[in-house]
Inverse folding.
């Protein structure tokens, strides 16, 4: 059990990569707070996990771009489980693949609020708890979009580039507190956002066009990201901080 006795808070945990991470962490002994803006999705994943590992999961509804919600989710994790060891900033949004000037200001603001500001808000709420405990791990789910951007996703790409730089800067600043900060850069994955990234219907033919750009020949899956998250969050990675790990089938080579 690689996360025995650990508590993890996972935003965007009601589906996709977040749900995969929550399931994997619970399999390895962690207690997880599944946070999502969609109450029903969070409740479903928490119930699924709890049915397998009694007492291992709770659900919480939050908009990660709201300061009061960020404070509340951290408070809930500590009140439910007594501590906060791992904070996974996974919640994310994107604009549909299209020319950059066609994205309106409201959509732009929401992307940066969820993908960037939420990291700040979660840190403001979670870092004091980790400092008091003597350490912890913050894991940001960024993207290959911040490393090797695709056209049509300019503002989303920028938000993930910010997440990568924040990860490195936070890692340096929080190292004296024994708080490790790391990131994962997934390639396009089999999640609900797939058609948004593609900008077209998810047909076998359209999917094949994107798979052809990935050397290992397929999209990422929640289990791929969850396995990487498990390693980076575990004591096996105790000397890793500031690492932004591509989980991309070779896309960024």
């Amino acid at each position: 059990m690689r996360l025995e006795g650990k508590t993890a808070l996972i935003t965007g945990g009601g589906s996709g990569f977040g749900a995969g991470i929550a399931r994997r962490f619970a399999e390895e002994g962690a207690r997880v707070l599944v946070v999502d803006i969609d109450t029903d999705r969070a409740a479903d994943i928490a119930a699924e996990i709890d049915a397998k590992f009694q007492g291992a999961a709770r659900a919480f509804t939050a908009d990660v771009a709201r300061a009061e919600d960020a404070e509340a989710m951290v408070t809930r994790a500590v009140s439910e489980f007594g501590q906060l060891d791992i904070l996974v900033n996974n919640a994310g949004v994107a604009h549909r693949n299209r020319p950059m000037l066609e994205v309106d200001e409201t959509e732009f603001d929401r992307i940066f609020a969820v993908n960037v500001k939420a990291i700040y808000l979660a840190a403001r709420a979670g870092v004091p708890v980790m400092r008091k405990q003597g350490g912890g791990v913050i894991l940001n789910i960024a993207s290959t979009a911040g490393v090797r951007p695709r056209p049509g996703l300019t503002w989303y790409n920028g938000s993930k580039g910010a997440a990568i730089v924040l990860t490195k800067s936070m890692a340096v600043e929080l190292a004296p507190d024994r708080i490790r900060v790391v990131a994962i850069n997934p390639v396009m994955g089999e999640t609900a956002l797939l058609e948004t990234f593609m900008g077209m219907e998810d047909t076998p033919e359209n999917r094949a066009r994107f798979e052809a750009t990935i050397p290992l020949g397929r999209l990422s899956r929640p289990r791929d990201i969850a396995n990487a998250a498990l390693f980076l969050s575990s004591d096996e990675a105790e000397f890793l901080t500031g690492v932004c790990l591509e989980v991309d089938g070779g896309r960024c080579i």
Summary: The first strand starts at residue 7 and ends at 11.
